[in-house]
Amino acid sequence: MKKIINAKRLVNGELKSCEVLIQGNKIHQIDSTLSEPAETIIDAQGHLLTPGLVDVHVHLREPGGEAKETIATGTQAAAKGGFTTVCAMPNTTPVPDSRDHLLALLDKIDQDAHVRVLPYASITTRQVGRELVDMETLSNLGAFAFTDDGVGVQSAGMMFEAMQQASKHGKAVVAHCEDNSLVYKGVSHHGEVSERLNLPGIPKVAESVQIARDVLLAEATGCHYHVCHVSTKESVRVIRDAKRAGIHVTAEVTPHHLVLNELDITEDDAMFKMNPPLRSKADQQALIEGLQDGTIDLIATDHAPHTEEEKSQGFVNSPFGITGFETAFPLLYTELVEKQIVTLGELVDWLTIKPSQTFGLSFGTLQEGAHADLTLIDLTAVKQVDRHSFVSKGKNSPFHGYKLKGWPVLTMVDGEIAFKEANYETARA
Ligand SMILES: [Zn+2]
Question: pTM of this prediction?
Answer without folding.
Answer: 0.97
